[in-house]
Amino acid sequence: MHDIKFIREHPDRFDLALKRRGIAPLAEEIVALDKARRDVQSALQDKQSRRNDASRQIGQIKAQGGDADAIMREVAQLKTDIPALEAQDAELEAQLHEHLISLPNMLDDVVPDGEDETQNELVREVGEKPQFSFTPKDHVDIGEALGGMDFPLAAKLSGARFVVLKGQFARLERALAAFMLDVHTQEHGYLEILPPALVTTQTMTGTGQLPKFAEDLFRTSDNRWLIPTAEVPLTNFAADQIIPQDELPMRLTAFTPCFRAEAGSAGRDTRGLIRQHQFSKVELVSIVDETQSEAELERMTACAETILQRLGLAYRVLRLCSGDTGFSARQTLDIEVWLPGQDDSKGMYREISSCSNCGPFQARRMKARTRASSEAPTAFVHTLNGSALAIGRCMIAIIENGQQEDGTVLLPEVLHGYMGCDRLG
């Protein structure tokens, strides 16, 4: 959510920020709405004050035996005028709120300009891609051959874009989650949380999923929502709070199922685990003050990279361009893992983590603040979130990178203890 004071004082900067997002200038319209509302509020306060004064005068005049008819007529008119102004104020507030809550976050200056993912900025490449003496297969062929992935059964139970994992493959998901949580809690200082998977409309609105992305979400009949990521409940831990500055940064992690309707991705990535309606993910969330914000994004990204490094997977880090950065983020670093079985076995990088700094954008929506002492003024916290990692895509990477010519899959050494074996098959 945007700061109306900033728009009022810096309309040109705000319009430039919108332009980077491909949005036409709106500062003049927003400032005009704000002025109209403030004018109405001023008139409303004047009339309310006059009504109170007039009511007192009526009592005084009647007590002295005088004629209060003229003032009584004035009060009667005020009783008509005040509700009309209140309705006008409510309408202007709604229009202004719609602008402030529906426009995306302002981008950080370091974000490169660009229209889509083809113009993202390469930050670094890490690790060596595996070499095969045979044509590598994709995870679907491998998983089905080993009896660990059953897409037809999932389709029978739930429809398209679901999977049933069996045996070692079900255990691999559990092992990956335990490994990631152990690293993040024991080494990176995150507090493990098990949050609800159903949240309220207010909670979804706090992190920016609503109102804009309602069609991409699953909604229950009692007006709750299935979480698309644990970012939603974890970030809302700070909602409607004033957190003492010495308690920041607050770092939280959770392993949860995630649910996405994928309404805008019809026909894309329909094969395998790449884009499912239900998937599991380990999420990282940081609540920090403004001075910690930029460094925390680098720290969070490094935490996600640690997982890939220990799994021995090649990956690259990209800074998303203006046209590819998400609604709530002011800067995003994507991590893409190498998948040798994709693109007709030519291989390709695919996103496995997005680490985003949202600045105070979500905090304004949630009324999440901090202050240095009880006497100090409050300031909005900064919120960050990142996948560390998406379990399904991590499974794809392990399966495709570890595949052997005999159809088995060698597992990364760090997983042997969690799995009780060194390979699938």
Question: What can you see in these coordinates?
Answer:
With 425 residues, the protein is of the alpha+beta class. The strands form 5 sheets. The chain has an 8-stranded mixed sheet. The protein has 2 domains: 4-102, Serine-tRNA synthetase, tRNA binding domain (Helix Hairpins), CATH 1.10.287; 117-424, 2-Layer Sandwich (BirA Bifunctional Protein, domain 2). The longest helix has 37 residues, at 27-63. The model has no long low-confidence stretch (mean pLDDT 96). The protein is elongated and about 105 Å long. It is 42% helix and 20% strand.
Radius of gyration: 27 Å
The end-to-end span amounts to: 50 Å
By CATH, the superfamily of the largest domain comes out as: Bira Bifunctional Protein, Domain 2
- CATH A-level architecture of the largest domain: 2-Layer Sandwich
How many domains is the backbone divided into? Answer: 2
Low-confidence runs: none
* Number of helices, counting only DSSP H or I runs of 4 residues or more: 14
Helix content class = 40-55%
Work out the strand percent: 15-25%
Mean pLDDT, as a whole number? 96
The tally of strands reads 18
- Characterize the main sheet: 8 strands, mixed
Which topology of the largest domain does CATH recognise? BirA Bifunctional Protein, domain 2
Cross-sheet strand order for the largest sheet = 1-11-12-13-16-10-9-4
**Which class best fits the helix and strand makeup?**
alpha+beta
General form: elongated
Reading off the top of the CATH hierarchy, the class of the largest domain is best stated as Alpha Beta
